[in-house]
Amino acid sequence: MSNASDRARLPSIRDVARLAGVSHQTVSRVLNDHPSIRPETKSKVLDAISVLDYRPNLAARALVTSRSNVLGILSATIGEFGPTSSIAAIEDAAREEGYSVSTLNLGDTTPEAIGNAVRQLSREQVDGIVVLAPQVRVFHVLRGMSVEMPFVTLQTASGSDGVSLAADQVAGAKAATAHLISLGHTDILHLAGPQDWIEAESRMRGYLDGLREADLPTFPPIRGDWSADFGYFAGKELSRRRDFTAVFAANDLMAIGLLHGFRDSGLRVPHDVSVIGFDDIPVAAHVAPTLTTVHQDFPEIGRRAVRILLAQIRGEQVPEFGQLQTLLRLRESAVSR
Amino acid sequence: MSNASDRARLPSIRDVARLAGVSHQTVSRVLNDHPSIRPETKSKVLDAISVLDYRPNLAARALVTSRSNVLGILSATIGEFGPTSSIAAIEDAAREEGYSVSTLNLGDTTPEAIGNAVRQLSREQVDGIVVLAPQVRVFHVLRGMSVEMPFVTLQTASGSDGVSLAADQVAGAKAATAHLISLGHTDILHLAGPQDWIEAESRMRGYLDGLREADLPTFPPIRGDWSADFGYFAGKELSRRRDFTAVFAANDLMAIGLLHGFRDSGLRVPHDVSVIGFDDIPVAAHVAPTLTTVHQDFPEIGRRAVRILLAQIRGEQVPEFGQLQTLLRLRESAVSR
DNA sequence: AGTGACGATGTGACCGTGCGCATGCGAGGA
DNA sequence: TCCTCGCATGCGCACGGTCACATCGTCACT
Q1: Contact A256 B58 (CB under 8 A)
Q2: Model pTM?
């Protein structure tokens, strides 16, 4: 019969010590794998620990070591497939290394909001931060803040001083564009992401580079908001002008909306227009027509982020990863003209 | 010029006290909004706080109060749209109430894994846990563990003793089925979720109830794994038997795969077969044909979970929410025969 | 005027760890 | 044999808050 006042007090390191007949300090040494412990003593302590079902108090440990074994995730991308898979991978990788993960969603990306978020995380004493906030301005704010804390951003940054990593967006976008060109398309539009987003810029650059290298005309990109709904309306609009034969969309959601918009306007994909997306979300292989797109390995990005961040935290040599390759997934939505 | 040894020591409550000319306890009272503080004293303290840029050390506070102001999220559903939107909402709602959020992904759902996860979270001193682990067995394990900690599960549970909440899956599924019936369909299949999942069972029950109430024949449901790929293969298989005119799939991903499978087999949706999904994921409105589906308000579910959990933690009256309504979104994929 | 209640503040202990330093003990070299 | 050294362990304090209790002054009430 255990009621609320039963909150006895969990066993502490001293309770363990008493039961094992050693000092609390010895118990602490066992817990931290100190080398100078007789095996016999160690097993006595371990027995006592399991008898009492002792669990170290992480708050006390954090207080005295001023390290929390918690990683913060600062995210400004809600519910999207890519970031979500990366976050899951980050959590798993962090747990494997004995770190917990505290996630914080950024409502808006004003400098104040970012500042507050970082301060909040530092109040929580996180040992490092992974930033999934792909907006250019977030990146700048962070740089400007001179955060007194190890952090990694998951985006391809222009400068290489801030630690950041991601798949090679430019190359992926260029490959998609080149594929369209190799299929004989010469008038290729780009449905871009929001101006502020690093990835949007990278993918646009890949598109522009691809066309320029082939000496083909570029069109001013259409600025979208990543959403399928926007893609749909863009498709309706674009169907009025018929000065293109292919569209490269900056993500799959917009590409799928685009397919819908074209369909509703009587434009047949891929017969009349070819479409390529970016990300390879799970439904991309099943929409009609199935979507040719650029695949990237989100989980691996997350894992690498953790490895880099932990190296920074531990003061080890920060591993140098090459840029992650993207992979063009050929499906039905892009064909030769 | 600040080097590593500069780790001076962040200002503590006593530094603030010294600067403000009061005792450390008075500072503590200001921080905790104690009523008996002269406004004048309070402002002196606040000034000192902002001068020193003082931030309370949460670890120290957690140590002495044995409450961490952290909520744990135990998730066994990776990367799916629904849970992901709920998690984001949980995080936001928790932050608004001054709680941080620590997420833990469950690799597998063996009792040991669940036990370890809960123990890990309790080591981290979380004040409560939100469980997004829709498998029946997780639910049982948790009940069996007699977790000494407030927790909420996001699933519709059969028994009402465990605190849990979600949209009314049974009603939603029944509405979908009834809609097909009202369109004149009499031979309706169900593409179900994995056997172990609470939601899969609820949706199947709604399907069965709907048919029974209309005195229509039920078919043994096809067990899927929630994935679009599975839906695709199911579509290919089903196209061989033509003893049905409609399919109700337990989630949108499988429904979208199904559309693809039917399409590849020469079966036209909705002309030959009507299809209804569940969840209303963002692409559902844009696939071809656009998908009739059951919408549920995932963010609201997350917010309610936080409210209930916090009430439990604070020992307040736990608010009694009615079950959340689902909403049938009529689109192109289901028509009268 | 005396007294009790209450408001505003201070004092010291305590929460559960890890760290620095001291201590005891046995082995090995002079 | 004595001294030194390294291993194994213990002692006390510090980390930065909160809590229980003490103190002191003011004001209302008898």
Answers
A1: no
A2: 0.88
